[in-house]
Design a protein that fits this description.
Distance between the termini: 39 Å
Radius of gyration: 21 Å
Strand order of the largest sheet: 1-2-3-4
Number of strands: 4
Largest sheet: 4 strands, antiparallel
Strand content: 5-15%
Helix content: 40-55%
Length: about 130
C-alpha cells in the first residue's frame, strides 16, 4: 500500500513536468514555412508566416517590407484578407506576363499553405 502512495505523487509530478516542457514558449513567435510552388509557373520561393498571437499572416519579402494579410479586407472569396499580399508577391516574384489562369493557380497554392500555417499557429497558441 505504501508503494502506491509514493507512486501517485511521482506520476503526477512527471505529468506536470511533461505538460510544462511541452508548452514552453518558443523564441520565435511566428510559425513560418518556406516552400517552392508546385505549379508549373515561374515564381520565386515563398516564405509564409503566421504569428501565434492571432495577428495577421504575411509573406516574407527579403528585399524590403513584408506583404501582410489584413483580416479587415476579408471578403467571401478571400476570407483571410490575403488578396493584396498574394498580388504583391505575384507581381514581385513571378515571371512577367503571367496569365490570369496561372495567377489563380499560384493564389490557390498560397492560400492552401496559409491555411496550413494558420492551423499550426493556432495549435502553438494553445500553450500560451
Amino acid at each position: 500500500m505504501k508503494r502506491k502512495i509514493y507512486l501517485l505523487p511521482l506520476a503526477l509530478l512527471s505529468t506536470l513536468i511533461l505538460i510544462t516542457w511541452g508548452c514552453e514558449k518558443e523564441k520565435d513567435e511566428d510559425v513560418c514555412e518556406k516552400f517552392e510552388l508546385t505549379a508549373k509557373v515561374q515564381c520565386g520561393p515563398a516564405t509564409l508566416c503566421c504569428p501565434t498571437d492571432g495577428g495577421n499572416c504575411y509573406i516574407v519579402n527579403p528585399d524590403g517590407a513584408d506583404f501582410y494579410c489584413d483580416i479587415k479586407n476579408a471578403t467571401t472569396s478571400d476570407p483571410d484578407g490575403c488578396a493584396a499580399a498574394e498580388a504583391a508577391y505575384i507581381a514581385m516574384f513571378c515571371s512577367k506576363g503571367i496569365s490570369n489562369a496561372e495567377q489563380e493557380i499560384v493564389v490557390k497554392e498560397l492560400r492552401l499553405h496559409f491555411r496550413k500555417l494558420m492551423d499550426e499557429a493556432r495549435t502553438y497558441s494553445v500553450c500560451n
